[in-house]
Specification:
The protein has 428 residues and is of the alpha/beta class. It is 53% helix and 12% strand. The chain has 15 helices and eight strands. The protein has an eight-stranded mixed sheet with strand order 3-2-1-4-7-6-8-5, sandwiched between helices. α11 packs antiparallel against α12, α11 crosses α14 (390-399) and α12 (335-361) packs antiparallel against α13 (373-388). The protein is globular and about 75 Å long. 43% of the residues are buried.
């Protein structure tokens, strides 16, 4: 009995010890930042888009790129139509992109597609760029997106992520769950990291990389299931700080079916485990020995790739085993079983409470959420349940293999609605 209580107490203390610093991020994210000059020298960027069966949405993205306040002569758009069975390539060409088609059924995933695209660009002598901006085919950009990313690049950043918003927040509780999570990541993780001058993490789409970084890497060398997090972990270990551009606003499409959401988050969970297996040792060492200014970044990334829900999963598994053994008569019952049931309940309750708090905090971004007032309030209460579904996903991902699967995107939008010029200075 005392042993069970002690293990549960240790797990609880470990969770708070590891993640308490993220609560300190909350007040830091509201601290004022020094305003920078509005204009910066213009740099030449290649836009990289990996697309798999995206004919419905890729035209919207390319239209939003054409509508940018950034001079078109400083941008060149490249699309890799990756194992497509539709008219993605034709649609992208019709909207002015240079398209390369890839057919490889064995090496699937965004990392392999980007590596192929960069090699094709080099083969065709498209390598005269200062930096590369990575987008997904379902994205739509604010009209000032490239101007703001250019300012961050000109300020010396070698890589930067951007403000990720949702173009279909109000579709249902699933899309809203994603939307709240990304708003929390932008405002209460990356904004705080920017203020503290530590490193951020890129999140799938909407980031730039300086040309010299990719040249030194020999192309896109990150091929795990979560290639974005792998890139982030690798960058921090190599001493490259990833910045954040809160004024560069990107909208992307979130899944609306639980099946698509399960498949996507299962791949993410498995990918996090892969990154942890490959980089945890280096990050632990970096936390202790990295040059001043990068030790905390190593620790922060270590906590990112070892998500807190893993401790929740361990707690639930441990106490479930106790319950099974007790029910089978292999251990004493009574007080011990009650203790295990209580531990599972409080684990789930505390997780739900934290997620509700994080969800509530994102409503500081109320004006940036594109939905009705009723849905904004409604989905505040469904967000914790969306996050609870991560627990079985993380559990299954521990034991089941995962493969990259494309997510169906079908929400075509009016680009002009998203590309309204705005004064972004107040967001800095």
């Amino acid at each position: 009995m005392q042993t069970v209580k002690m293990i549960n107490f240790i797990l609880m203390c470990l969770f708070f010890a590891c993640y308490m610093y993220q609560f300190l991020y909350i007040p830091v994210s509201w601290l004022p930042r020094k305003r920078r000059a509005r204009e910066a020298p213009l740099h030449r960027f290649a836009v990289l888009i990996a697309a798999c069966n995206e004919e419905t949405v890729i035209g919207n993205l390319l239209d939003s790129i054409k509508a940018q306040s950034y001079p078109e002569r400083f941008l060149e758009v490249f699309v890799v139509a990756d194992n497509c069975r539709d008219k993605t390539a034709e649609t992208a060409r019709a909207h002015g992109a240079e398209v390369y088609e890839r057919h490889n059924a064995s090496l699937r995933g965004k990392g392999y597609a980007l590596d192929f695209l960069l090699r094709e660009m080099e083969r065709h002598a498209h390598n005269e760029f200062d930096g590369y901006i990575v987008l997904d085919a379902d994205n739509v950009l604010d009209v000032n997106y490239f101007r703001e990313m250019n300012a961050t690049f000109d300020n010396g950043a070698k890589a930067s992520t951007s403000y990720r918003n949702s173009k279909n927040f109000g579709s249902n509780w699933i899309s809203a769950g994603y939307g709240v999570w990304f708003l929390r990541e932008a405002k209460f993780l990356n904004q705080a990291r920017l203020t503290l001058n530590t490193s951020c993490a890129v999140s799938g789409t909407g980031f730039f990389i300086a040309a010299d970084i990719l040249k030194a890497a020999g192309g896109w060398k990150w091929h795990l299931l979560t290639e974005d997090i792998e890139f982030s972990a690798n960058s921090i270990l190599e001493g490259t700080r990833i910045s954040y551009t809160p004024t560069a606003i990107l909208y992307d499409e979130q899944p609306i079916t639980f099946r698509d959401s399960w498949n996507q988050r299962f791949r993410w969970a498995k990918g996090f485990y892969q990154v942890f297996a490959h980089y945890a040792g280096g990050l632990v060492k970096g936390t202790l020995t990295n040059p001043r200014g990068y030790r905390f970044a190593c620790y922060d990334m270590l906590m990112t790739i070892a998500p807190g829900m893993l401790l929740s999963v361990i707690t639930i598994i441990f106490n479930t085993i106790i319950l099974i053994l007790g029910s089978a008569g292999l251990m004493s019952t009574g007080v011990m079983l009650t203790s295990s049931l209580s531990s599972i309940f409080f684990c789930l309750f505390n997780y739900t409470l934290f997620m509700f708090m994080f969800g509530a905090l994102t409503f500081t971004e109320w004006d940036n959420i594109r939905s009705t007032t009723a849905k904004k309030i409604k989905y505040l209460f469904t967000f914790p349940f969306f996050m609870l579904t991560y627990i079985p996903i993380a559990l299954v991902a521990l034991f089941k293999k995962a493969a990259w699967k494309p997510i169906q995107h079908s929400i075509s939008v009016d680009v002009e609605e998203f590309n309204k010029a705005r004064d972004n200075a107040e967001r800095i």
